[in-house]
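Page 42, continued from yesterday. The earlier attempt failed because a stray header line got pasted into the input along with the sequence. Redoing it now with the clean sequence only.
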Amino acid sequence: MRKFVSRPVGYLIVGSIAMIIGLSTGVGIGYFFGGARTSIEVAVEAAPVVNEDKVVSLPAAKTIVKPMPIPVPLEVPGLSPNSEEETWTAIPGSNEDQEISSAAPAPWPELARKIEAERLRRENEDQRQKLLKEIEQVQESLRTKYPERNVDALAEVEDIWPTPEEPATGVEAGDQPEQLARTHIEATVDEDPVVEDPGSRIDRESEVWEENAVSVPDPAGKPMISIVIDDLGLNRRNTVRTIRLPGPLTLAFLTYADDLERQTSSAHAAGHELMVHFPMEPKNPDTDPGPNALREGLSEKEIRRRLTWGLSRFKGYVGINNHMGSAFTGYAKGMAVVMDEVSKRGVLFLDSVTTQRSTGRQAAAQAGVPFVTRDVFLDNEIDARNIGLRLAEVEKVARAKGHAVAIGHPHGATIEALANWLPHLEKAGFVLVPVSMIIKHRRGT
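This time it went through. C-alpha cells are written below.
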C-alpha cells in the first residue's frame, strides 16, 4: 500500500522539478538571446467599409500602429463654388480670382451709369411702343367716330382732343390715353422712322461702323496689328479675362450667348471694339454651329429673319464675322443676302476665312460693304509654343503688308500668351488697333 501511494507522488515531484528546471532554462535562454524588449499586445478593431472609402492596411513589420486618417467629404453642402454661368464680365483691374454674381452691381461707376442708362432706355422704349399702340387704338376710334376728319394729322387731333390746363411733361399713372398719345407725338415729332424693304438703304451722314469704332491715334506709318477674339459670351470666366487684356482688341460675341447687353457694355467700357460673331453652317454635318445659324437650305426670307434676330442681340458693334461657316460662306447666293442686310445696317464684314472657297469678300465688294480678311489663326493648336509661333507670324505679316488681322479664341493658353505679348508691341515698333482702323487706313480716311 505504501509503495502504491508513494510511486505516483514520486512521479509528481520529479515531474514538477523537471518542469521548473525547463521553464527556468527557457526564460534564461530567451533573455540572453532576445534582449530586453518588452512585448506589447495590440488590439485592432476593423471598421466596416462604407461608401468605397479606402482601407489602410497595417504595416506587417512594425508593431506600432499609426492612427488612420479621418475621411473628409469632397463637397460641403452650401459651400460649393459658383458655376461659370453665375459669373459675368467684370472690369479690368479687379481681382482676377473674384467671381461676381450676375445680380451684383456694376464694379465701377462709369459702367454702373452706363448700364443704368441702358436700362432706362429700354424702359422708355417699352413705354414708347406701348404709347404707339394706344395712339393707334385712339386714332382708329376717331376714324370711326369722325370719318370726315384726318385724324392722322397732329393739328386735327389737337382739335378733337381737349387741351389740358397744363402741358404734359411726362407719362404719369393717371394720364388718359389721348393725353399720352399727344405727349408722345410732341416728343417725337422730329423723328422719321424708316421701314426698310429688302435691298433698301438708310441715308446716313456717316456709317454706323464709323460711329461705333473705337478711336485710336493715327499709326503714323507703323505696321498695324488687330487682334480679334471670337466665341465670346458663353464662357463667362474667360470672357472676363479677355476683357482685362490691354486693348484695343476687337471682341466678337456669339449671337446666342446670354446677358449680351451687360457683357458687351463691359467690353466697350474697357476700350474694346465689338463685333457680332454670327453662326454659319460648317462642312461637317455633325458639327453644330449653334441656334439660328445660317444654312444653305434656307429661304431668303428665313436668312433675313435669322440675321435680323442675331443683329439685334446687342448694340454698339462695328460689324459681323462668321462663326464656322466653311459651307455657308461658299454659298454665293446666301452670302449676297447677308451682305445686303449688312449694307442696310451700315456695318462692316470680317471674313474669318474658314474655307478658301469663301465668297464673303466678293459679296461684300459687290454690295459696297467695307470688309477685311483674317491673316492668321492663333490657336488652331492650343499650346503655348504654337501660339507663340503664330504671334511671330502676325508680326511678319504686319511688317510685309503694313497691317495684319489675327483671330484667336478665349482659351486659357491664348489669353495667357496675349497677356505676355501685347505689352511689348509698342517697343517692337507695332501699333495695336481695332479692325475698323485697318479698314479706315485701306480707304484712306
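Notes: The CA atoms of residues 28 and 34 lie 10 Å apart.
Reminder to self: strip header lines before submitting.
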